[in-house]
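Session log. Operator J.P. requested a structure for one protein chain; no other inputs attached. Running the standard single-chain path with token output.
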Amino acid sequence: MFAGDEVSLGERTFRVFPQVISRNVSARHAGDIQAHELEVNTLLLLESFHQSNFELEHFAHIAAHELLHPLGQATNFLYLIEDCIIKYVN
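Structure written below.
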């Protein structure tokens, strides 16, 4: 196909300019590539968020456990003090 050739589609005839078609296809291809790159980057970011969320939940679980242990010891110590005070008062 050469510049200026005519192509018939049904009742209509079009003059073809290959360089324009080539540019349009290249632009569409570049758009497809950009859309794919955006999708891949979005999926990578989503995976990063999932990993970060998992690590944060793990940290929260450990921190809660580590904070509960001293609290339990303090509670037991207070019960001992309470028992001593009750014995001393009686």
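Operator note: Residues 64 and 71 are 11 Å apart (CA to CA).
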